[in-house]
Design a protein that fits this description.
Layout (H helix, E strand, L loop, with lengths): L4 E6 L4 E6 L4 H7 L17 E6 L2 E3 L9 H5 L2 E3 L3 E3 L3 E6 L13 E12 L4 E7 L12 E5 L9 E3 L4 H5 L4 E7 L4 H10 L5 E9 L11 E6 L3 H13 L6 E7 L8 H10 L3 E7 L12 E2 L2 H8 L7 E5 L2 H13 L7 E4 L1
Parallel strand pairs: 1-7, 14-15, 14-18, 15-16, 16-17, 18-19
Antiparallel strand pairs: 1-2, 3-5, 3-7, 4-6, 8-9, 8-13, 9-12, 10-11, 10-13
The structure holds FE2/S2 (inorganic) cluster (FES).
Amino acid sequence: MSNKLTNIKIPKYNLNYEIQNNKNIIDASLDKNIKLAYSCKSGICGTCKAKVVSGEINKNNKVNHILNDSEKENNIVLLCQSNGLSREVILELLSPLPKNPKLNKVRELVSEILSIKYINKSIIELSISVPKRFNYDKKNNNYIKILIPGLENNDKYPIINSLEQENKYNGVINILLNINKNAKANSYFKKSLIQGETLSIKGPYDENNTILPNNKPLLFIVEDNYIIHSLNMIKVLISHNYSFPIMLICNFENKTDIILLDEMHRLTFINKGFSYKISLTNKDNINNIDRFLYGRSINIISKIFPDLSSHYIVINGKNKFLNENYNKVIQLGAIKNNIKKIL
Ligand code: FES
């Protein structure tokens, strides 16, 4: 019987990691941030050849023709055309590991603005073309800078793509910019972003400092303007198969301030363990048919979670928000070591 997971061991490089068997070994290793040598990923170039020292793999025999008879007899396979099958597979790589296995190298590039969408008064969504060599890592939290002459305080903006779009990444990325963060940037963006124009970007920066232990239900308590960052973290967790429930609670003042509602809704379909609650602080906005709650998140948490002692909690917002919610979750039994405050 085949296993869903295979432990890949590559003794020469001291590598020992587990992969999902529904993907070829190159892609499944990339999911674990391990870059083995590859080029075409179509069974043509042979860059990904490896010897199976022990264990079983599932080969795509139709694309094996570039292997000669002696290679086949010697258990040489194409990793881009092979999935794990047995519980453990030991490999010897025929090409060395790429020298710089880190996927993201910060670069400065020129890019074209394909579309601009003003989501609300503080957020715009920018779709830009980037050369393939931009090489952004879809699994991690990636950020870019938009280079603005004379603007010293240049924020990094998260690259947000829906998970479906990520799979079709073809040199176009969507970023959401919080243009209220910085007054100078705000006026620049409003005046200068024109479809078809080119702009300079620097990145991607990998700020994947969000590794959370995969052993507890997770609760995100998020201030409105930090929703992009939190949702980005949640997408990373989902793409890494976080196996416990994840709930996000965020409050906005008015319905019209809510952003990324579609994205949150879509994530509930992609991962059944994800759910979200939105509360509105302006009661005039709520009517009977709404699925929104009324009140500040701090008052809502205790109604949903009377006891938080078995949760991991991420609080994402400004200092005041962090402190208030920190005290609240402590009152509800949260363990100090299981609370992460993100400013
Ligand atoms: S990467 Fe080219 S054959 Fe596998």
